[in-house]
Structures are given as C-alpha cells and as structure tokens.
Amino acid sequence: MSCTSCSTSSNGKPGGCKSNGGCSTGGCNRMNTHDWLRNLPMSDVASACKVMEVSFSQGTRKDFYRNPNLQLYEKGDLIAVEGISGFDVGEVSLTGEIVRLQMKKRNVKEDNPEMKKVLRVATDRDIEIWKQNKAREPEAVIRSRAIARQLKLDMKISQVEMQADGRKATFFYIADGRVDFRELIKVYASEFKVKVEMRQIGARQEAGKVGGIGSCGRELCCSTWLTDFKSVNTAAARYQNLSINQTKLSGQCGRLKCCLNYELDTYLDALQHFPDNCDVIQVAKGNAFLIKKDIFKNLMWYTLPDSTKHYPVPIETVRKIKAQNQQGIIPDELGAVEVTSSKPKEEEPEFVELVGQISLKSLDKAADKKRQQNRNQNQQRGQRPQQGNQQRQQGGQQGGGQQGGNQQRPQQRQQGGGQQGGGNQQRPNNPGRQGGNPNRNQQRPNNPNRNQQRPSNPNEGKDK
Asked: Are 79 and 66 within 8 A, CB to CB?
C-alpha cells in the first residue's frame, strides 16, 4: 500500500519518496509516527538507541525489538524477528532516538531482558511463506466464529492474526464479561494446527483494526493516530450544547465518539465566566428557564412561559436580574438583545455560469414552458378533425354540382360518352382547362366511331 505521491513500483517499494516505504504523508502505514529526530546529528554512536519499533498488519500492532548486531535498517524495510517457536515478518516503523521517546511513552525499559531480537532482513522465502499464511486469515475468522457459536460462547471473534511461519495464531475477541474458552482453545488448535493465543480487545480497538471513514469525512482517529482511549460520557455533549442524540453522537464502534473530548477543556474554561445558579430567573411575565449558553457571544438563552421564543440575554444582565431576585425585586423585562449575524448576505447572481451555482427557478420555468407547449399541441390536434368536418360540409353545399366531394363525374361521363373524371376533384373547377377549349366536351359525343373502336383494343383497359 502506498500513497498517490510515491506510487508503488513492481518490487512493492515506493519509487517517489526513496525511503523504502516510509511515506512523508503517512498514508503507507496505519498509526504512522513522524520521525522529527531523523536529521539530528549523533555525537556518540555507541550511545545510540539499539531498539527498533516494528509494525505488523499495516500498523494495527506495534512492538519493540532489539537490534543486537547494530545493522542499519531503513524505515519501511521488511525484517524477520523472533516469534513464538519460530519467526515473524514485520515492517520497520521507527529507528533512532525517537524510539526512546516512544518507549518512555509506553513505559517500556530499554534494558528489558525479555525483549525479542531482530534476526535478519526478510528473504524472498520468508516473504512468500508470510503471504501464504496471511491469506489464511479471512477463512480463519469465518471458521472461528462458527466454532464459537456452536459452543454457545458469548463472544465475538474480531480478527485473526497469523504468524509469518504459520506456527501461531492470535485470536482477537470482544466480550462483555469473562469467557471460559478452555474448550474453545482445544478446538481451535486441532482445527487450524497452530498454537492459539486469545487476546481480548474493546469495541474501540476493533474499530481501529477494521478502519473506516467517520462522519467528518476523514479516516477514523483510532485507526490513524489515537492510541490512548479515554472514557467519554454524555456530560461532554451537554457542556458543548449538543443534542443528546445517540445516533449522531455514536461512532462506528457503537460507543460515544472520542472527538467529544477534544474541545471539552476549552468549553469548560469558557463556562467559568458564566454565572452559576441561573437556570431559573424571575421577571414580571413569569419564570424564565435557561435553554443554552453561547460561549462565543457570551449570551444566555432563556424562554418565557407565554411563548416558545428564545430570548438571548447578556451575562451582565443575568447577574443583575439574579441579584434583584435575591433581594425580592422582580424586574419588568428580561433585557433580551437582538443577535445580528456578521456574515454578509450572499446575493444571488443574475447570470449563472456553467461552473457556478444552478438555480432551480430556471429549471421550473423551463418545465412550465414545456407543459404549455404540450397543451397547445394537444389543442391543435383536437381542432384538426373539426376543421376537416367543416370543410366537408362546406364542400357539400357549394354549387357547380359538387356534393360529397365528387358530383360532376357522372355528368361528365354522360356528356362525354365514357369520359372518366379521374381522382382529382378540382379538375372541373379549373378555369384554365375549361376556358381553353370550350367545345371540348361538346365535340366528343358527335364522334360516332370513338366508342366503337375502343372495345376492339384488348390492352386498353389494363393497367400499365
């Protein structure tokens, strides 16, 4: 895994940052620590720290190992270290003087005789065996959960971590109380053919191992930098004027979010300037009840019994009213002030660019215009059949022998002695054709041989 700024090469090492996996952005490893003592010059090499911090499973677990041979290792190197009846493969996360600070933070002594040692740089054979055993972990999680359910144990297997040589497996589980897993260990040992180690963790540690994205849009704090989990209660939300909504205040672990404690000290310091015992004050309209405190504007919000409106009152006014109430004086007014926003009002742009904001009013106008066009088209379609009927009725009432669209054709056949009018209704009304030859229809009946010669032609009546 690597960040976008250093792009992993074919051999699995980043090629951009040239630190063999130690990315400057911290995206190549979980729980990454910045080595700010890296460029510190060493006065005495013999007094240098001989302990290294090694991370496993992409930083979900870290431990300290002694470097007895004083071999030079870089951050991000894969090394083989001592394990339980074998060896394990981990990644170097810290070297140098900063390791002493981390050991002091975790209360680990440098001269601890039980501290395990670094064996060598991981060979290709070590890495191949390590990857094969890591591929067994997802299947082991599913099988181990099924076995725990068959034994009716009130526990949840969160993660299974295999040792690089496959001789030991650590089962991380979550349970509310004590669990008797003596029989479970025997079943696991016979099923997976490994030495079993059971380790209980909490819900917050499980979320740190699984990882994810929080409601803030960033990666979870417990999986990136947070190592010390402090207790969080709903009082932290009350001090910060947050609504007690369990859904919004809970993280992915199902517990209250750790970030509720981040700004708690700032709120507690600011609330010291507010007067105490001012939850209820008396005015002429009745008792005013405190709703919330605004530490940014130094206002206290009250509500009166005759309305649901919230009234902002300055701290000095609240102290004055409280002092008057102690003397038996009830003021007439609450002394609320108007809260004005210093943020300038944004004006809606007249012309919207393609990359700017899009107003929904323009979309509504276009939709209304399209609906109106559809209505007009439907009305025009309904008027077309009426216009056709009117034209037919007018055509039937016209003079000149036109009835029903064609009344002159029989008359032309009678006068012309077999003349056919075709399919065109406008031919008899064409003044050009009738006026050009006025004797055309009169001369046809006077030809005695015209009607006699036509039957003698056998191909005349056929369609061409």
From this structure: no
CB distance 318 to 333 below 8 Å? no
One of 2.60.120, 2.60.420, 2.60.40, 2.40.10 is the CATH number of 274-326, namely 2.40.10
Q: How far is CA 194 from CA 60, 191, 424, in A?
A: 22, 8, 102
Fold observed for domain 51-131:
GIY-YIG endonuclease (3.40.1440)
**Spatial CA neighbour of 52 closest among 94, 21, 90:** 94
CA distance 104 to 108: 6
In the predicted model, what is the mean pLDDT of residues 36-63?
Answer: 80
- For residues 306 and 285, the answer to whether their CB atoms sit within 8 Å is yes
pTM score over 0.70: no
Domain 132-201 = CATH 3.30.300.20: yes
Give the pLDDT score at 19: 44
The whole-angstrom separation of Cα 253 and Cα 154 is 18
- In this predicted structure, what is the pLDDT of residue 426? 45
Question: Strands, DSSP E only, in 247-380?
Answer: 280-283, 286-294, 299-303, 310-314
pLDDT-derived band at 146 (thresholds 50, 70, 90) equals very high
425 vs 419: CA distance, rounded Å: 15
What lies within 8 Å, CB to CB, of 380 at 6+ separation is: none
Strand partners, 293: 300
Quote the tokens at residue 432.
């050009």
Residue 313 β-bridge partners: 300
Q: Which among 106, 89, 8 has a CA at the least distance from the CA of 55?
A: 89
For the chain, domain boundaries: 51-131, 132-201, 209-270, 274-326
356 pLDDT band (50/70/90 cuts)?
A: low
Of 209, 57, 60, 201, the C-alpha closest to 134 is 57
Q: Which residues pair with 162 in a beta bridge?
A: 169
Q: Residue 184's closest CA among 143, 216, 224?
A: 143
Lowest mean pLDDT segment, chosen from 44-53, 133-142, 434-443: 434-443
d(CA 7, CA 364): 47
Residue 432 sits at φ, ψ, to 5 deg, of: -70, -45
Token pair 């890591």 in the structure block, residue: 134
Please report how the helices 137-150 and 182-192 are oriented relative to each other, as an axis angle in degrees rounded to 10: 140
